[in-house]
Specification:
This protein is of the alpha/beta class. It contains 14 helices and 21 strands. A hairpin with a 2-residue loop joins strand 1 and strand 2.
């Protein structure tokens, strides 16, 4: 299998010649591949090439851009089975989770293909026979720095609209999932994308930092941790654009009138789907006193019933953590929870001697000052908090630096709408898990979860990040 950077229409090694390996998280003895360990020199070469390609791509008819994205979507569908197997092996998802991601990506590309022909301006009324109108133009080179937990879907949500708007793209996928990044670029090329319009640079944070630092990259879109997002924001500065989707500490509030079986089911789905490695994953449960104990018992029972194992094995409902670093982080927070006085009701241990398999953890008696409540774990761990009333529960839900997703389980319309108004999050789910988003709705958070400027995924302002708006004043002459 050829693995390389893709720069100026060619598959090439890193300038330094250095490489890194990616291993299967369910079986670390299995090597997925060897990939270029890029640095600033590779990024600079990629930007050089994209600068030359930018004018021609900006002038390409929007219908042609749309057709390329449509064709790439069809190519992905034709290779779905192979892509699903590779995603399971590289990232650790279950086959069901990988199937969902691979099937969602072509739909994304087709959605953004439609946006290519909808980048319209506005006409404004003025006195006399003059005309004032706006034009939308490509912003320039877009740097897309993407995470490993949705290594096919999330890049398509950034690269798709960038290309649709006429921008060349510098793509830096996570070093944990380099193969899926390469596969997405291959699909776009198979769809007819001019090879000089996209560059793929593999590597770790060194390459990502170089993407953000290069002043010729007009816009940087990033999904990942809050710490890295803040560093990127500082590097980009005020003269260029940045779109950040970062961490979360997402609560489920359970009211006294909730259906507890339904609540337990959606909590476990939101907390332990994707092995708890989702920015919108449930990490806190805040239940009112009257239902807290019964709900906790039901969640523990459902958690203990989960089948943990390699994602390609039949019956497995939770795969491994994505890396040894993720495993260490999970175990660290389990130890912190116990040390700070929370009660570990189930899980929190490793499974077997190979792979990064763990039993999902449920903590009770958690307090706002505890690290398992205040910090993003990004793993299969939930902390139960007790509230005397719905109002107190909402206060506890908001008592975090993050503001990505929050959910309430209730049969009361009044409670649901009150929660929707009071929740300090960009996403509010009612009788649904904190995870799972419509591809045609805006996605983004409040507080430390987002830059709160440009939304991702969809919505009326989707293409604004990828375009510049120019106002034109025209006076006719006779």
């Amino acid at each position: 299998m050829m693995t390389a950077n893709f720069i100026d229409g060619q598959w090439i090694p890193a300038v330094s010649g250095r490489t890194f390996q990616r291993h299967n998280p369910a079986d670390p003895d299995q090597v997925i591949g060897s990939f270029p360990a890029s640095d600033a020199a590779d990024v600079s070469a990629a930007v050089d090439a994209l600068e030359k390609a930018a004018p021609e791509w900006a002038a390409t008819a929007p219908e042609r851009r749309a057709a390329i994205l449509e064709s790439a979507a069809t190519h992905i569908e034709s290779r779905a089975d192979a892509l699903i197997a590779e995603l399971v092996a590289e990232e650790g998802k279950t086959t069901a989770e990988a199937t969902m991601e691979i099937s969602r990506t072509p739909a994304n590309l087709r959605f953004y293909a439609g946006e290519a022909t909808r980048c319209t301006g506005t006409t404004y009324p003025v006195a006399g026979e003059g005309l004032v109108y706006t034009l939308r133009e490509p912003v320039g080179i877009v740097g897309a720095i993407t995470p490993w937990n949705f290594p096919f879907n999330i890049p398509s949500r950034k690269i798709g609209p960038a290309l649709a708007a006429g921008n060349p793209v510098l793509f830096k996928p996570s070093e944990i999932t380099p193969l899926m990044g390469q596969r997405l670029v291959e699909a776009l090329l198979a769809g007819g994308l001019p090879p000089t319009v996209i560059a793929l640079v593999q590597g770790d944070g060194t390459a990502g930092a170089a993407v953000a630092a290069d002043p010729r990259v007009a816009a940087v879109t990033f999904t990942g941790s809050t710490a890295v997002g803040r560093a990127i924001h500082g590097a980009v500065g005020p003269d260029r654009r940045v779109q950040l989707e970062m961490g979360g500490k997402n609560p489920v509030v359970v009211a006294e009138d909730a259906d507890l079986d339904a609540a337990a089911a959606l909590i476990v789905k939101g907390a332990f789907g994707l092995s708890g490695q989702a920015c919108t994953g449930t990490s806190r449960v805040i239940a009112v006193d009257s239902v807290h104990d019964e709900l906790l018992d039901r969640v523990v029972a459902r958690t203990e019933a989960l089948q943990v194992g390699p994602g390609d094995q039949p019956g497995v409902t939770m795969g491994p953590l994505a890396s040894s670093a993720q495993l260490e982080k999970f175990l660290h927070y389990v130890q912190a929870g116990v040390a700070e006085g929370a009660t570990l009701r189930c899980g929190g241990t490793t499974i077997g001697e190979r792979g990064y398999l763990v039993r999902p953890a449920v903590f009770a008696d958690a307090l706002p000052t505890m690290r398992i409540v205040a910090e993003e774990v990004f793993g299969p761990l939930i902390a139960f908090q007790r509230a005397a009333s719905l109002e107190e529960a909402i206060g506890l839900a908001n008592a975090t630096e993050y503001g990505l997703s929050a959910s309430i389980v209730t049969s009361s319309l009044a409670a649901a709408t009150h929660f929707a108004h009071k929740s300090r999050t960009g996403l509010v789910k009612i009788n649904q898990p904190t995870t799972g988003m419509a591809m045609n709705a805006p996605f983004g958070g409040y507080k430390a979860s987002s830059t709160q400027t440009y939304k991702e995924q969809a919505g009326a302002t989707l293409m604004e990040f990828y375009t510049l708006e120019k106002t034109v004043y025209l006076t006719p002459t006779f």
